[in-house]
Design brief:
This protein has 354 residues and is α/β, with parallel strands linked by helices. Helix content is 24%, strand content 21%. Bound molecules: flavin-adenine dinucleotide.
Length: 354
């Protein structure tokens, strides 16, 4: 069966696109690599809490419960996405991983773990979680301890009584440090001194600041927005700060040695595990056959529309595919615009055929 649109992914970005697609007459389908609803939130650490308050963590159409002062947990976010999907009865097939997308004169062919699919247009909404970024630090192969990316961290129990280095001064680093400090001997490694938002400023402030920067950019004005790496004082982070967990931190280390991490100035610290909270890169491997992935790992777009392949849109990957598109509140805006473009494009193509 040929679809008008196939959305690759089943996380919040894919659902936001589906929300607007269901208002059209287009035949669409979501293919998600996960076995269950919730996108990559399902793989977050168990104590993860959003840094955006509930009121600022909603997809179009349904408010995330909790209001202005409450930071939803990982499980509540998964539950919200599941309920969202159920409410609108989106056609999702899972687990179906898209392995390769190819284009021919009739549209797109998607090779998947469940066979081939065809579509006139494709929306890629695969996020970045499946493509974690680890800095290339010399000596990795000599290190006898464990290396882990934050995407694989779940619970503190496995690290009880260990000496653990946590790398990264963003929200992930601060939250994982808060989680581990009560059970492990922790070292915090940061490229720059960590910067904490005041207690009364929440994730909404970061979103507002990003909005101001976006508007300034549109008007050709200069506006220096605070980095999203700034740490939001969610309750677990506040409690850790009050226990003195964040008082000490060390600069980025230069290499690994057999028993730990080391600096050019001769300092060495023995550790059992290093956890990298160093972010992600867009998960676009399935689009490689199209030959449009740039050396920086991204794809050229105008808004969310791929400029080099007609009929392909990319939603939810961050600033380069639309302002704040990698957030729950922000993706709705880019999803709506995407569906407007897509609908117009497919209707034009149908009209030309008739
Ligand atoms: P994902 O949730 O990653 O979903 C992508 C889906 O696509 C997954 O189900 C995946 O299995 C599937 N997929 C991938 N490749 C394929 C393929 N080839 N074929 C088929 N399916 C595929 N945002 C906020 O708004 N507020 C916050 O407080 C906040 N906190 C965050 C805290 C952390 C620690 C992190 C990591 C992110 C946070 N974010 C927050 C950012 C953002 O909301 C998430 O990154 C979000 O999960 C992105 O949604 P997505 O749908 O684009 O991608």
């Amino acid at each position: 069966m040929e679809y008008d649109v196939i959305i690759i992914g089943g996380g919040q970005s894919a659902l936001a696109v589906a929300y607007y697609l269901r208002r059209t007459s287009l035949r669409y389908l979501l293919l998600d690599g996960e076995a269950h609803p919730g996108g990559s939130w399902q793989h977050g650490w168990h104590s993860l809490s959003l840094f955006s308050p509930a009121l600022w963590s909603s997809l179009p159409g349904v408010l995330m419960p909790g209001g202005q002062q409450y930071y939803p947990t990982r499980d509540e976010t998964i539950q919200y996405l599941k309920a969202y999907e159920d409410r609108y009865r989106f056609p999702v097939q899972r687990p179906v991983k898209v392995l390769a997308v190819e284009k021919d004169t009739d549209g797109f062919r998607l090779q998947t773990t469940a066979g081939d699919y065809r579509a006139r247009a494709v929306v890629s909404a695969t996020g970045s979680f499946v493509n974690p970024y680890l800095p290339d630090i010399p000596g990795k192969e000599d290190f006898r301890g464990a290396l882990l990316h934050s995407s694989r961290y779940r619970l503190p129990d496995a690290f009880r009584h260990q000496r653990v280095a946590i790398v990264g001064e963003g929200n992930s680093g601060a939250q994982i440090l808060a989680d581990l400090a009560p059970v492990a001997d922790t070292l915090w490694i940061t490229r720059q001194p960590p910067s904490f938002l005041p207690d009364d400023i929440d994730g909404k402030y970061l979103f507002d600041a990003a909005t101001m920067q976006y508007e300034a950019m549109q008007q050709g004005r200069n506006f220096q927005r605070p980095s999203l790496g700034q740490i939001v004082m969610v309750p677990a982070v506040k409690a850790a700060r009050d226990r003195g967990v964040y008082q000490h931190y060390l600069p980025a280390f230069d290499y690994f040695y057999e028993d730990g991490i080391a600096w050019e100035n001769g300092r060495k610290e023995a550790v059992d595990t290093v956890i990298f909270c160093t972010g992600f890169r867009p998960a676009l491997e399935h689009l490689r056959p199209l030959g449009i992935i740039q050396p920086n790992g991204k794809i050229n777009t105008r808004g969310t529309m791929a400029t080099d392949i007609p009929g392909l849109w990319l939603v939810g990957y961050g600033q380069w595919t639309g302002f704040a598109s990698a957030t729950l509140i922000g993706v709705g805006r880019t999803a709506r615009k995407t569906v407007e473009e897509l609908n117009a494009c497919l209707n034009d193509a149908s009209a030309q055929r008739e």
